[in-house]
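QA checklist item 7 of 12: single-chain prediction sanity check.
[x] sequence parsed
[x] length recorded as 260
[x] structure emitted
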Amino acid sequence: MSGQVRVKTYIDRGTSSRAAARAAAQAIAAAIAAQGSARIVAATGASQVDFLDALIAAPGIDWARVELFHLDEYVGLPIDHPASFRKYLLERLIAPAGIVRFHLLDGEHDPARAAKEAGRALVERVVDVAFVGIGENGHLAFNDPPADFITEKPYLIVELDEACRRQQVGEGWFASVADVPSRAISMSVRQILKSREIVAVVPDARKAAAVRACLEGQVSPLAPASILRTHARTTIYLDRDSAALLTPATRGEIRESDAA
């Protein structure tokens, strides 16, 4: 494998999520200790629920000193829709953790303006740690294949492909593909890579093919998350199911404890 990415594989989803949360908490606490505050980016979706629960429960984080940026959001979806990522972050991270500084993407009213305003704030200072996932189609944030690896814009308005929209239905967020918005605001690939540290939490068998393509295939816009292999401080946390198609050399040992 190229790059500096580290792969850690655990016996199950809960163990992997707790290990990722411990590393994320350490990164946040270290940033606060070094500079008085921490900037984070948070992913959403079904794959992140256990991780965020464990992160909120982790000791040693002064959440009042954490500034949160939104990774992606659907265009045209109201905040009270069950699939709204603003709703998800408010209910699953911001409120329970007590985060007071956050930048949510309003994709409902003026997506271009929302992307511009959040981007302006985002580029003021480097992000200390970004939490991401990998989609079933290999997407990173909502950068579906073929992803834009070139643009320096912090946020983009992107088109969602069929596989991405099917995933949202499969996870239970929408009743049918027709109900899934066709566009979204997404943090760009290059902006994600500007984070000092990246923690990727990727559980479940349905992600196994994408994990193999991104970790053992070519670094390519056709497998957007493969770009993580070029980042100096990325750790990908897998469970036994999501790592099932990897070679032992890539997967590493399957850990039965969430200890470091």
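[x] summary fact logged: The mean pLDDT is 95.
[ ] second reviewer sign-off
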